[in-house]
Structure formats: C-alpha cells, structure tokens
Write a structure and sequence with these properties.
heterodimer, A: alpha+beta, four-stranded antiparallel sheet, B: elongated
Chain lengths: ~180, ~100
C-alpha cells in the first residue's frame, strides 16, 4: 500500500525528515566513534536535516533496502573490472584507446535514478557521463567504442530500475556524435 | 594472524599500485576525457583496496564504518567532479581525442 502511494506522488515531508535525520545521526555516530558527544551531534543533525529539506525537497523515489546488497555486489565487481581495464590500457605500450562520445537515450525516469546512473557509469569500465540533454539523451564518453557501451549502460539502468522499483520506458536508437 | 597480515599487506600494496597507475594515466592519456577515466576508475579501485586492507585491521565497528564512509564519500566526490569537468570541457566545445587523428589533435 505505502509503496504504491510512494510510487504515485512525492514522499511525505515527515517521513523524509526522519529518514534523513536517521542517516545524519548514524553518520555522527560513525564519525565521533564510541565516545559520542551527543550534546553537539544531536542538535547539529536536527538542523542539518531541516536545511537538507529546504535545499532538496522530498523526491519521488525510494530505494528498496533489500535490493542494496545485490546492487552493491554488481557495483563492486564492475569497479574492479573498471580499475583493471584502465590499468591495462595505461600500462600497454601501444596505449589501446578508441575514444568516442556516444548519445544514449535513457530508459530511466528523471530524478534520483538518472543521477545515480550518471554517477555509477562514470565508475564503471570505460564509460564517463559527459552531459545530459533535456530530451533524456545522455552523452557518454567511452574509452573504447569497440566495446558494447550501450549494452553496459542499459545493464546498469536495469540494475537501478530494480533498486528503485521504477519502470523503464522504451527508447530509440543509439547515435554517435 | 600471519595470513591476515599477509592479505592486508597485499591489499594495501595493490591499492598503492592502482593509485600509481591512475597518476601514470594522467600523464599518458591524450585528452581531458580519457584522463578523467584514468583518475576516477584507478583511484576508486586503489582506495577501495586500501580501505579493505585497513578493514582487516580495524578494531571496532565505528572505525570500520568510518573507513567505508570515507570510501563512499570519495566515490561520490570523484564521480561528481569527473562529470563536472567533462561537462565543462564539452560545453566549451572540446572535441574528444580520436585514435585516427594522430598528429593533428
């Protein structure tokens, strides 16, 4: 029930406030260690959560916590491949690069899922977010255009769609610019 | 314990190696876009390996979480900064280096 309501409209201000407050308190606990100085941390977290609501109103998307481990596994493995890939190219004498900027139509809805996509693919093998257009086209710089860049971006979108429980819309053809 | 120490040493050394490769990439790669690739991805993995190496020696849960928080924030910062630099370069009309343009790019 609640999930359907969340999917339809914005999350409520109260639940967003307490969610962010909880995250900030956890961050304070982590930063201050075992001898937590709550007389300072608690008011700070309360003010910071209020300011965050003012700067960034509640979004329309909610992460599915049970999906986080799966996404984290995907991300860690891809990070490993990305670091290895770039190290291999850096250390090869011939510098095997065939960079190109591709224009990929996005299937994810605007907002948080798109932002996470742009951040994630910049850390995945051979891809870098360059610019997002109004018409939901993402310019991606790739290190090697011989690889299936569109396919790996689409795979990341699928992972994020599962993480956020959102629908992906059908998209057009990939173009290079 | 020896095994854990050994694994920790290996992870830390591998992490340093990836930082070194990321720096080498800045020097070797041809343009701003490819250099961002080298820096973000190699340093992400390098810092990740160092964090996991240090996790093996962490003596309390807050310390372990702090290490993971450091890695998470560094990832967020490097991905965001990389995107901002790439977008600025693109807006100024900087064309990506192409393999076939040897000599005139």
């Amino acid at each position: 029930m609640t999930e359907q309501r969340h999917a339809a409209g914005r999350l409520s201000w109260v639940s967003t406030y307490f969610l962010r407050l909880g995250i900030l308190l956890a961050a304070w606990w982590i930063l201050s260690g075992s001898n937590s100085d709550w007389w300072f941390g608690l008011p700070l977290a309360i003010v910071a959560a209020s300011v965050s609501l003012w700067l960034t109103p509640p979004g329309r998307f909610l992460l599915r916590p049970q999906r986080i481990p799966h996404f984290a596994g995907f991300f860690l493995w891809q990070s490993l491949l990305a670091g290895w890939d770039v190290a291999r190219r850096t250390l090869s004498p011939g510098l095997p690069l065939q960079p190109e900027i591709l224009r990929l139509p996005l299937a994810l809805p605007p907002g948080a899922p798109t932002w996470w996509l742009m951040l994630t693919i910049s850390l995945l093998p051979g891809t870098l977010s360059v610019r997002l257009h109004q018409d939901r086209i993402l310019e991606v710089h790739c290190l090697d255009s011989r690889l299936d860049v569109a396919g790996s971006v689409r795979e990341t979108e699928t992972q994020l769609a599962r993480l956020f429980r959102v629908e992906m819309r059908p998209t057009g053809q990939v173009r290079s610019s | 314990m020896i095994l854990i120490d050994l694994l920790q040493a290996l992870l830390l050394l591998a992490g340093v190696g990836f930082f070194f490769v990321g720096t080498l990439g800045i020097l070797r790669f041809p343009d701003v876009y490819t250099r961002i690739h080298a820096l973000t991805k190699a340093d992400n993995l390098g810092l990740g390996l160092i964090v996991f190496g240090l996790l093996l020696g962490a003596d309390s849960i807050p310390v372990a979480l702090k290490l993971l928080l450091v890695w998470g924030l560094a990832l967020l910062a490097s991905a965001t900064a990389g995107y901002l630099v790439a977008r600025a370069a693109r807006r100024r009309g900087l064309r990506p280096w192409k393999a076939r343009n040897w000599g005139n790019g």
